[in-house]
Structures are given as C-alpha cells and as structure tokens.
Amino acid sequence: MSYSKPKFQEKYGNYINGAFVDPIDGEYFDNHSPVDNSLIAKFPRSKEADVKNAIAAANAAKEEWGNTSVTERSAILNKIADILEENLEEFAQIETSDNGKAIRETLNADLPLAVDHFRYFASVIRAEEGSASELNKNTLSLIIQEPLGVVAQIIPWNFPLLMMAWKVAPALAAGNCIILKPAEQTPASATIFAEKVGHLLPKGVLNVIHGFGPEAGKPLASSPDVDKVAFTGETTTGQLIMQYASKNLHPVTMELGGKSPNVFFSSIMDHDDEFLDKCIEGAVLFALNQGEVCTCPSRLLIQEDIYEAFIEKVIARTKAIKMGDPFSPDTMMGAQASSDQHEKILSYINIGKEEGAEVLCGGGAAKLDGDLGNGFYIEPTILKGHNKMRVFQEEIFGPVLAVCTFKDEAEALEIANDTLYGLGAGVWTRDAHQLYQIPRAIKAGRVWVNCYHDYPAHAPFGGYKKSGFGRENHLMMLNHYRQAKNMLISYDKNKLGFF
Amino acid sequence: MTFKRVDITKEAAALLEELKAEHGEVIFHQSGGCCDGSSPMLLPKEDFYLDDNDIHLGEVENVPFYMSHDQFEYWKHTHLTVDITPGRGASFSLEIPKGKRFIIRSRMLTKEEQEHFNPS
C-alpha cells in the first residue's frame, strides 16, 4: 500500500448548525503541509460574528440533545467510531499531510486510539449510575448528572484528530453541544470529520470553527454563552483563557504540557534481554511524533554507574531513526508541524550548546531531498548537560533529548521534580520497591512504569503543577462536562416546626 | 554602560510597530509548556493580568516584556532577543494573523552582564 497527500477541496467552510458555511466576511487563510510546504487548502479566517453564530446554533440545540437517552448518544458515538474506522487510511493520510508526522504513527496510533476513544465513551455511559443515599429514614438524596450545555474546545496541532477525540467524545457522551476550534496549523482532519459524521448528530450539536486565536479563539473563550472552556496548549494562553472564563465564572480544564523525566535505574542493565531492549526504546521514545507530544520524555535521567553503557545503546538506537517522506511506511520520524516550530527548536539546540551542553548526536536541521527539502525536518538530537539548563526546563516540542545522570534514588527524585511541570514521567527498573515508591514520589499526573507513551482509554491523563488540571482519557472526564444535580427528597409528612 | 536583558531585531520591531498601531498598548509575556509554549506572546495590555508573580525583564520598542517568576529562575543567565519568523503559530498572540511568529533567540549573558544582573 502506498500513501500520499489526499485530494482536498480548494477551500472549506466552518461547520455550523449542521452545514458548511462561508466565513461572514469572506476571508480565508492558507494551510500548508509541513511535509513539503505545499498548499493543502484554504480555511475560514473566522471572526467574532462567525463564532457567535456557532454559539447560537449550539445553544439552540442543547435542550434537545441534553435530553437524548444515553442509549441514543451511545449508538451515535459507536457509529462515529465505525465511520472513522472505515476511513482510517484516509484520515491517517490527512493527519500526515497536515501535521507532518510519519504515516506509520497515524495508521497505528492516532487513528486506532481515536476510534477506540469514541467506543470507550459510548460504552461507559451505558454502565454509569447516579447515586441514591438514604440520609435518614425520611430523607433521600439523589445525585443525577446533567450536561453543562454548550462547551468550547480549543485543541492543539500535535495530534489534531486524537486530541479532538479526547475532547469531543466525552463532551458528546455527557450530552453537551460543542464549538470546536482546531489549531490553525492543522484544521483539516476536524473538517473532514464534520463532513463524514456530522449527519449523525442533530443540527448544532457539533460546530467546527476555524481561525486565529486573537480573532476567533478569544470571542469563543470569553463568551458568556458557553458554559465551559477546555483547552490544550501553552501556559500564557492558558492563563488568558482562565481569565476570560473567570469573568463569566465558567469552569475550565487545562492541559498545558510538561518536561517529563524518564528515569532509568541501574538494574535495567542487570541482564542483556528483551527488557533491556525495551528500555532502550523507552529512552528513544523522545522522538515519537517528532517530539511534539505534551508528555515527550525529553529529560533522560540515567543512574551514573550505567550511564556510559546505556547511553551508548541509546545513541546507537537514535542514530538508526530513519527520516524521510512522512508518507513512506518505513519512515520513522517525519516533519515538525510548522516553520516557526522548526526555528524555535533550532534556537533551543543553539542555547543548549551555549549553556555548555554536549551534543551526543544530531544537533541541527535535517536536509531531505527533492520537494521534502521545503519541509521542516530536525535531526533527532541528544544533549548532555545538567537540570538547571534551559534545555532541561523548557518544552522544546521537538526531537531533542536532554540527558543527565543521578547517583541514587534521592537525587533522581530531586532532579525529576525540579521542573515547573508535572504531566508525565517514566520509571524503568527491575527493582520491585522502586517500581512502586519512585512513581509515587514523582509529582506528575501520569507515571509510566517500565513503559512509556501508552495511551489506552480508561487510564486518566492530566497534569500536576503548571501542566494544568482535569483528567482526560477516562470516564472521570465526563464530570468535567457535567453538573451534579442533587435532589433532596423528604418522605416526612410533618413540618419542621419553625414557622 | 547600560545593560539590557531583552532586545529585539529590526524585523521584529517593524512588525511590532505595525501591531501597536492596530491594537494600542500591548505587552509581551513569555509562555511555557506545550505546543506554542516557550514562545513570547504579544497581548493587549488590558487583557492579561500581571502581578508580583511576573517579572518585568525590560522594554523593547517601549513594549514591556514579562515572564513568570518561577520560569525566570531558569532563564536569568540568558539574554533574550525577540525575533520574527514566518510561520503559522497557534495561541492568542496578536501577530498570528500576519502569518508571522515572534520567537526568542537566546545567548548567555556576558561576564559583565552577569555581574550586573545576577551579582553573586
């Protein structure tokens, strides 16, 4: 099977109230593919008036949609999953085209996980129950979950379709109407998603609006007519969105990235076996998705007595990463998502060198042949240094690994927790005590133990510290999209006696 | 001799002037975290709540440049230059519609700058 850039229309509209509509003032922006910088299509440069139309459509639909039975909603979510699955290869090619990531990742990770996500939320809402507590013999407390109503969801460009699934599936499952704003670098897959599954939902339940943060994101996040804002992105915009929501006293959930430590203890090298092989891959997973993952294991901490032996294997495995055409099934790492990311990553490699970090491999832009020469590629890079360096503290969002050593458990924890963020972490050991105690002592929402970058539904995902709050990828996300209604019922025929 | 923690390139300054003319008073706030994090955000001055948790690093073209205190702890040994690159950034930064993105170029403080800003 060979893969290539799919055929796109010349331009797309916003999906509002069950139909594609042109932006009101007729302005569009060009969306380019980072694979070769070629034009994908034009997407609406929406403004406040477009956003207001989407919000109005969602509000008009919320009453009816909020009252659908879980049976109906579950069936629709399952149909959405089926359509994604039937069109898996097409969506994978859209994602690779729009984001630049290797087709083997979109085919085997992004799409299957997105399909499963809809099925997961289709299932769990069927098995859920509210609660009933008899507080005394005459008083019954019923807790019933009700949808918030209309939710705004602003999603990132690193996993456009999967992050859409993480946001859209629980919000729909909980009975909400949605205004989704995809990132302006990757508007394609959410649009094709609306095109293919929109007919399954009543008009106005799902709205997809494109445009730029200051022009379309701001009126969406600050609207008094949305009941909640869910955001994945960076900290300054996160604060800004929380401020806008605070004016309306609306709830928010935030996923704001991290600088995840990946900690390898001496015992991993006790044997030269398949587990050691897994550990080496675990360290090299910094290159998955070109490092554009919120939980990228971008800080590698190695116990000092195995450092030389282990890093040698990690460097060799990193050097074996095959770069090339993202559409080629044997390409292991594709393009960075945009030219500005490409520039930013290079500027970080540069300051790392200036800070005194030693380049163990990579260290610059990757020059590919032909049309790919116009794309945005970076060599997988390993920098050796110490944890106070900026390359150890800031999310580079590229295939750049910062490595340092530690002498014992205490120092490993000190370094691991010396970060503003707390989204992910990895712990690798053959020691049964470390397997439990180290993850418990790391201040992060997700600690992978003897694995990394696994995202099965029903494993909650979210941050500590500046990485944000809220737990996605688990049924507990449903309650971030719901109110708890308490009905307090009295079976007592007698009055209180006060009046 | 005057020392500056943050400078701006000529190209970035030209775009900044254009944006000031369109949006009035603006500020830079250095972001962190996912996606477009680690980039400076240009925001309308009245939009962004600043307090003692933010540190004022200086001004470029009369636009104040801020960063959160805890982040600055890891940045204080470096000099920053606001530059511009073509690109389609996400985020709420005001230059995004122009198809350009502010980025930070960094270098280590010189010995003199280090003694001035971070005396031991």
From TrEMBL, chain A:
Transmembrane domains' residue ranges: none
One Pfam family this sequence matches: Aldedh
SUPFAM superfamilies: ALDH-like
Any one GO MF annotation of this record: aldehyde dehydrogenase [NAD(P)+] activity
Top-level taxonomic group: Bacteria
Aldehyde dehydrogenase domain residues: 25-486
CDD domains: ALDH_ACDHII_AcoD-like (cd07559)
Active site: 255
Keywords: Oxidoreductase
Family according to the record: Belongs to the aldehyde dehydrogenase family.
Protein name from the UniProt record: Aldehyde dehydrogenase
Species of origin: Zunongwangia atlantica 22II14-10F7
From TrEMBL, chain B:
InterPro entries: DUF779 (IPR008497)
Record Pfam families: DUF779 (PF05610)
Domain of life (superkingdom): Bacteria
Listed name of the protein: UDP-glucose 4-epimerase
Lineage, highest ranks first: Bacteria, Pseudomonadati, Bacteroidota, Flavobacteriia, Flavobacteriales
